[in-house]
């Protein structure tokens, strides 16, 4: 192979790698744009309106909050499946306190504290060498039972004091949308602009390398669980605020929708790579699909079917892109090394 051929092949491989990385990291924005255009044409004139856009954002808010917690955990290599139980427990603790004449702000603080404590317990147990998935499944079961015991097996109604973070609107925008905007802004700044956030992502990529560099990697794994628990508790409080009652039943659909949004965002399930803005777009994609199909009078189970198909497709795409990029990089490195050895000879 001539020098020109080797260089040409190397350039071609590098261009292919750049295209694949772009598809993985930015493809979700293209997908959402295509969905918006498609539904604007198919479901006109109702889909492409400001009011409907607000409805989509509001519908995607809960999924986005839970997905944020799942994403941070996965980025650090700690998948938390106890989120539905944490959400139920946080809502019930807040609701029980409010029905016993405790101030609303204190009930909310207690609910959020539940999430932090659950995350801390999950993290500390996982550090003992137990599989995080098994640990959090066990925690899910415990929390579901405790929430039912606290609420005596019934919902806790009459939580009108939570309306300010549920059904109320500010400047025409529902409260959950403002909460999600604040959460994702703070989370993005933390992960990309702070030392602890950058270290947390590094731990997910290679915990051993981080440990050898002198950083206490276990601390950041626990922090990831705590953040995940906090987001789950916040989602539970928002759920209670939307329906003005706390339900002790853990909803497994929370995990399904959140994981789908995270997978669509291209968050690496092996940890170390992810973006909260892309996770938010993933949640919006799910809300867009559900909204568009509803406007066309299509049964809700088809939205679930499409969501499942998207989850499988995104996992397949992630696997294919990662494998292809690795193969191309190895090929490029080998070609460059071969060229350099020939030049030296």
TrEMBL record:
Cell compartment(s), UniProt: Cell membrane
Chain ranges passing through the membrane: 28-47, 53-74, 81-98, 104-127, 134-155, 175-192, 222-243, 249-269, 276-295
Keyword annotations of the record: Cell inner membrane, Cell membrane, Membrane, Transmembrane, Transmembrane helix, Transport
Lineage top rank: taxon: Bacteria
InterPro entries, sorted: ABC_transp_permease
A Gene Ontology cellular-component term: plasma membrane
Membrane topology per record: Multi-pass membrane protein
A GO MF label: transmembrane transporter activity
PANTHER family named in the record: ABC TRANSPORTER PERMEASE PROTEIN YPHD-RELATED (PTHR32196:SF21), ABC TRANSPORTER PERMEASE PROTEIN YPHD-RELATED-RELATED (PTHR32196)
Protein name: Sugar ABC transporter permease
């Amino acid at each position: 192979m001539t020098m020109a051929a080797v260089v040409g092949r190397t350039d071609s491989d590098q261009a292919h790698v750049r295209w694949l990385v772009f598809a993985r990291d930015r493809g979700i924005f293209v997908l959402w744009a295509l969905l918006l255009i498609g539904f604007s044409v198919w479901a006109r004139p109702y889909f492409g309106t400001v009011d409907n856009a607000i409805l989509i954002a509001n519908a995607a808010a809960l999924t986005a909050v839970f997905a944020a917690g799942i994403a941070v955990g996965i980025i650090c290599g700690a998948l938390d499946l106890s989120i539905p139980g944490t959400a139920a427990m946080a809502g019930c603790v807040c609701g029980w306190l409010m029905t016993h004449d405790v101030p609303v702000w204190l009930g909310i603080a207690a609910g959020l504290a539940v999430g932090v404590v659950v995350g801390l317990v999950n993290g500390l147990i996982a550090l003992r060498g137990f599989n995080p998935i098994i640990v959090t499944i066990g925690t899910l079961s415990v929390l579901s039972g405790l929430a039912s015991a606290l609420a005596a097996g019934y919902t806790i109604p009459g939580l009108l004091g939570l309306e300010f973070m549920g059904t109320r609107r500010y400047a025409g925008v529902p409260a959950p949308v403002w909460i999600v905007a604040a959460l994702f802004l703070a989370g993005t700044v933390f992960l990309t602009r702070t030392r602890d956030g950058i270290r947390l992502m590094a731990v997910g990529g290679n915990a051993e390398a981080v440990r050898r560099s002198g950083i206490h990697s276990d601390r950041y794994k626990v922090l990831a669980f705590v953040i995940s628990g906090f987001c789950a508790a916040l989602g539970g409080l928002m759920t209670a605020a939307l329906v003005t009652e706390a339900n002790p039943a853990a909803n497994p659909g929370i995990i399904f929708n959140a994981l789908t949004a995270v997978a669509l965002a291209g968050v690496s399930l092996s940890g170390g790579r992810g973006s909260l803005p892309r996770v938010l777009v993933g949640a919006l994609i799910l809300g867009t699909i559900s909204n568009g199909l509803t406007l066309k009078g299509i049964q809700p189970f088809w939205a679930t079917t499409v969501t499942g198909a998207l989850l499988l497709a995104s996992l397949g795409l992630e696997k294919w892109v990662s494998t292809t990029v690795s193969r191309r990089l190895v090929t490029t490195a080998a070609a460059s090394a071969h060229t350099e050895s020939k030049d030296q000879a």
